Amino acid sequence: MKRKNSFFLLNLGCPKNLVDSENLSLELMKLGLYPSSDPQEADFIIVNTCGFIEEARKMSLEYSKELSSYGKRVIVFGCLPKRIGVDKVKKLVGADFVLKDKEDVINLISLNLQKNGSAKWRDLNLKLPPRLNTLSPFSAYVKLSEGCSRKCTFCSIPLIRGTLKSRPEEEILNEIKYLATEAGVKEFILISQDTTMWGVDLGKKREEFFKLLDKISEIDGVEWIRLFYVYPDSFAEKLIDYIASNPKVVRYIEMPFQHIDDEILSAMGRATREATINKIMDKVKEILPELEIRTEFIVGFPGETEEKFEKLLNFTEKYRFSWLGVFSFSPEVGTPAFELWKKNPVSKKTCERRKKELMETWTKILLEKQKERLGKVFRCINQGDGKFRTYFQAPEIDGEVILKFDKKGNFSPILDSPFCEIKIIDFDGPDLIGEPTSTIY
């Protein structure tokens, strides 16, 4: 039976958007709305959009336009209207409402419910958790801050989300305590635009980040802490030392280098250079060789010659990154790099060729690494969908561990447990194939 006052929420974009969508869903449920998995059955259709680069904006517009044709009350909000403007989005997709922030969505629906005399709104007897987690039963994203105060010339994030705004320590710890002790979450993936800058806007020294990690580690139930969006400056060297001292921080970080050539890094407005990046990587080799690094590169940035691109290839081959994302330069209106692009563009054809060549180089490295993993046993976390992940696999982007069972066994204890020891017997691209051992947690 169809429930009155239901909503369908489509989330697009990064993990930070997912956390925003989870928080919005919770607030709407507090108003008495019910989540629906079918947009055709929902009273409200809500789209949380991405506006970071052109490709993401096109996807957001396509989904929003499609859902706006369903004949429902459609609300489009988030990074897309913040980036290109409310009126432009409304004109392009035909949604009933286009808003910037999730708070605007909450206010709009609350007023709608009051106007229509809904008895459900502000149901004080409604028992809801302080935080929704939709990632998986045992893993959750936790946002440390919003916005970014860096001056990367290619990036539109400060235009969309503003400067750095850190969450208070107590708020972060209380959220993690609930997820760990009440919701059964074991893995906490710390996200922001610039994770190791947490607290700087609150007057804290950067080393306070380590104290925050210490406090998270002491919370009952916390097993794995995963770090995303680590900026590769000199502070990253201190972070490597810290990770080596804290067994709960998994030996994995996502650290976007973007490039390795000094002229390109300078034009990008990056606060790091080749010497610093090499120093970070050499330190990893020296004191924490098991640390697996995911990084991202931009090819085709204005001024990138074949020689500079060759340096990027050599850098990749030298350090054999565990995971790599390669993006063609996206000229973003309003950013300094857009002006550089107008004066000295790299053709789309060249960008795509370089992207393909770099990914082919890295794919060979991945193949070698996957072969090295054969026969090894890893402690893996349960994703709740019958698949698992090792410590060097982040959710949604780094492949999975697919279990191969002996048909005679009873597998329910394994599939219900947060962790399992798995022996790797094969692989398929980025995915690993393994057999569970008798050890479960």
Secondary structure: elements and pairs:
Layout: E1 6-11, H1 15-30, E2 34-35, E3 44-49, H2 54-68, E4 73-78, H3 79-84, H4 86-93, E5 97-99, H5 102-115, E6 139-143, E7 145-146, H6 157-161, E8 165-166, H7 169-181, E9 187-191, H8 208-217, E10 224-227, H9 235-245, E11 249-254, H10 262-267, H11 274-287, E12 292-299, H12 306-319, E13 323-328, H13 336-343, H14 348-373, E14 377-382, E15 387-389, E16 401-403, H15 412-416, E17 419-428, E18 431-440
Parallel strand pairs: 1-2, 1-3, 3-4, 4-5, 6-9, 9-10, 10-11, 11-12, 12-13, 16-18
Antiparallel strand pairs: 7-8, 14-15, 14-17, 15-16, 17-18
Helix pairs in contact: 1-5, 9-11, 12-14
**Range of strand content:** 15-25%
Structural class: alpha/beta
CATH superfamily of the largest domain: tm_1862 like domain
Major sheet: 6 strands, parallel
The average pLDDT score comes to 90
Proportion of helical residues = 25-40%
Strand order, largest beta sheet? 6-9-10-11-12-13
Terminal CA distance reads: 39 Å
Spatial extent as radius of gyration: 23 Å
Question: CATH architecture of the largest domain, please?
Answer: Alpha-Beta Horseshoe
Number of strands: 18
Number of helices: 15
CATH class of the largest domain: Alpha Beta
In CATH, the topology of the largest domain is named pyruvate-formate lyase- activating enzyme
Number of domains: 3
